[in-house]
Structures are given as C-alpha cells and as structure tokens.
Amino acid sequence: MDQSATRLDMLRFARRVIQQQTARQLALLDRWIADEERRERERRRGEERRPPQPDWLIQHGLNHSNTDAVHTGDCWTAAKSGRCRPATRKQALDALRRQVPACIHCRPDTALGIPD
Predict the structure, then answer these.
(1) Is the pTM here over 0.90, yes or no?
(2) Confidence check: pLDDT of 116 > 90
(3) What is the three-state SS of the chain?
C-alpha cells in the first residue's frame, strides 16, 4: 500500500470499484431482463400464430395406410400418439361408420351423437 494514500483516498477508491462493479452487474441484469422479455414476446407470438385445435382427429397406424381410431380434438391420448391428423366432423362420422374404433377415453362417438 502506498504510504501517501490517506484513509479518505482508500474510501474513494473503494467507492469507485463498487460503482464500476454495480454498473456491470446492472448491465448484466438488464441484458437478462431484455432476453426474458424477448422470449416472452416470442412465446406469445407463437401462441397467437398457432392454428386452432381441431374438433376431431383421426389416428393412423404406423404405416399410415390404416386408420386406428377417432378422437375428439382435445383427447390426451391422441396428443401422446403423434399419429393423428385433423379431421372434419363429416370425416370423423364417416370413419366411425366404417367401424374405425372410437377412443375409449374421449368418446367421440358420444360427442357426435352416435348411439352405442
């Protein structure tokens, strides 16, 4: 330590160091906030652009040539399978009339008014 530095000089130096560190930390925090705001805007934009959920889904087999089941648009099992395609009401009714099984969880046959 320089002998000519007074206690007041050291305190002023400490204040400058803290001021610089604080400015850096605030700049870092501001970047984090800006990044999070950007991610939030992108998430909202993605939700706004997402197509509406279909009313009906047709589940296809692994080879896509056969039809495995009919689901309502919000069926949780259809979402898990990943092999479903959106369908119109008419397509769902036609599939059920062709003896394609109705999902036992969401019961599209009941929702479409087809008696057991």
Answers:
(1) no
(2) no
(3) CCCCCCHHHHHHHHHHHHHHHHHHHHHHHHHHHHHHHHHHHHHHHHHHHCCCCCCEEEEECCCCCCEEEEEECCCHHHHHHCCEEEECHHHHHHHHHCCCCECCCCCHHHHCCCCC
